[in-house]
Write a structure and sequence with these properties.
The protein is α+β, with helices and mostly antiparallel strands. The protein is built from six helices and twelve strands. It folds into two domains: about 180 residues, RNA polymerase II/Efflux pump adaptor protein, barrel-sandwich hybrid domain (OB fold (Dihydrolipoamide Acetyltransferase, E2P)); about 120 residues.
């Protein structure tokens, strides 16, 4: 839509001023434009600037609702606290009460082993005299062996408690803690970006959304015109391309300005295109052109708006 309006404006200018000279380059006045995107789909809470306002780098532009993000940050911080407690638990080792309980369990297993060993000895003596059945001796032997195994298990558990946590377990817990803290840092950064600040000094060109709107993710929330001066976007015909160089001087006539403004060629596209339909002027039709940007150097150009039709010619 903006390009169509610009084209219509150019045609109106040509109608009012007559046919341009054959060496005139047609185009529009532009500013370097940057867009500030929405990094989350949240409602707009407030807007701190108006369209056309001059802003400095870092100035607040608008604020999005951060309540949902605050909840996610609280959840992430709770996960960090949980991992910190896990690391502390592994570093401190078992509690005294837990070690006392395992010592008591070991003593009980040892007592059971002593009793089972004595019982097996008695049954073995009676079996040697053939006073008890062979099965009774086998049962006593199994009871003794089971008691011995229980003592070994209790001793191993007590050693595990007294020796302490394995280094690998501590490292795993610390890695999980770092991961949880990184999640908090990421969410905190995303929360801070719900307050949109001007990345560069410039002029607010457009604020597409109002307070209460919920823009989609990635939508442009603010458009800024930046740079020290505007530039004329014109199209150089192929017949003139070999005669222009970066830094070359031009004279630019902007609609509404009664004198020529000075400009310098900033860049020329490497790839050609066909003449824009609003620049078809007789012999120029269907010729290849190269898009060029002419930076205006006059002080009064700094206040000109974007979109004005321009005519430029090379200073020979």
């Amino acid at each position: 839509m903006r390009r169509q309006l610009t084209s219509i404006a150019v045609l109106v200018l040509l109608t009012a001023c007559g046919k341009p000279e054959s060496n005139d380059l047609l185009g529009t006045l532009e500013w370097d434009r940057i867009s500030v995107p929405a990094e989350a789909s949240e409602p707009v809470l407030s807007i701190a600037v108006v369209e056309g306002a001059q802003v400095k780098a870092g100035d607040l532009l608008l604020t999005l609702d951060g309540r949902r993000m605050d909840t996610r940050i609280a959840q992430a911080e709770a996960a960090v606290a949980q991992q910190q407690a896990r690391v502390s638990e592994l570093m401190n080792g078992a509690r005294i009460e837990q070690r006392d309980a395992f010592r008591a369990a070991l003593a009980s297993a040892q007592a059971s082993q002593v009793e089972a060993t004595r019982q097996y000895t008695r049954q073995s003596e009676l079996a040697a005299k053939q006073l008890v059945a062979r099965s009774t001796l086998d049962a006593a032997r199994a009871t003794r062996d089971r008691a011995t195994a229980q003592v070994a298990a209790a001793q191993a558990q007590l050693r595990e408690l007294t020796v302490g946590t394995r280094l690998e377990q501590v490292e795993q817990a610390e890695a999980a803690l770092r991961g949880a803290q990184s999640a908090v840092d990421e969410l905190t950064l995303s929360r801070a970006r719900l307050e949109l600040h001007a990345p560069r000094a410039g002029r607010v060109d457009a604020l597409p959304f109002k307070a209460g709107d919920q823009p989609p993710l990635g939508a442009s929330l603010a458009s800024l015109l930046v740079g020290d001066a505007p530039y004329a976007r014109v199209f150089i015909p192929a017949s003139e391309r070999a005669n222009v160089r970066e830094g070359q001087a031009f004279l630019v006539r902007v609609q509404g300005i009664d004198r020529d403004l000075h400009a310098k060629l900033r860049s020329v596209s490497r790839d050609p295109a066909f003449t824009p339909y609003y620049a078809l002027t007789g012999d120029d039709a269907s010729r290849l052109v190269y898009r060029a940007e002419l930076v205006l150097t006059d002080a009064e150009a700094r206040t000109l708006p974007a979109g004005l039709p321009v005519q430029a010619r090379i200073v020979r």
